[in-house]
Amino acid sequence: xxxxxGTALGDIALVPAPFLRQPRGVRDIxxxxxxxxxxxxxxxxxxxxxxxxxxxxxxxxxxxxxNAIDVLFLCGxxxxxxxxxxxxxxxxxxxxxxxxxxxxxxxxxxxxxxxxKHSCGAVRPLIEDLIASGFDVLNPVQCSATDMDPAALKAAxxxxxVFWGGGIDTQxxxxxxxxxxxxxxxxxxCRVFGPGGGFVFNPVHNVQARTPIENLVAMFNxxxxxxxxxxxxxx
Length: 235
Fold this sequence. Notes:
Elements: E1 2-3, H1 29-38, H2 40-65, E2 71-75, H3 89-110, E3 114-118, H4 124-132, E4 137-139, H5 150-157, E5 162-164, H6 173-176, H7 179-193, E6 199-200, H8 213-226
Parallel strand pairs: 1-2, 2-3, 3-4, 4-5, 5-6
Helix pairs in contact: 2-3, 3-4, 7-8
């Protein structure tokens, strides 16, 4: 998995520009979302220029490494909250889709790379549009969010999208559950997402501090049980 950087349009982790000494422009998260709603022409201008630069950098990257890359992390913009979305599907189609379509089209025409879209939260109403934009992979597959049932996601999109994540809930089960609960959930997620391929086992998000070691072992044992491997033993 390779991260080029600079291709995530409107990523709220980057909008405040903590990496710049004197950032300019829209640098407040709330103001950014108001700008998306009230000044779409401005947003189009920003995204269009960003897309042009991204295409130049993608060509440079391909010239340097060729097809050594398997998967390219193209976008880390979060579109989902716990229960809804930061923007409507119509807004995504107007402001984001044209530029991600250009990036994905270039990648798929010139390379063998697959493209990786990260978004936490309840993004099911946007998944068809993400597929239409050319993304191959969705991460982190937050199954605890509204309308993100694993079986329903697999049935609806499993033949067109790789689910990279969803292996274990990192908000509740992994940090706070009993090891038997962790292993059972990891095993069940493999049984749901695994058949037919299109699944990369991964926790829903980063493993948090103070997560019990026993639970991490149990997570791996759920995966090993699915693959018919003997369990790991702590110590």
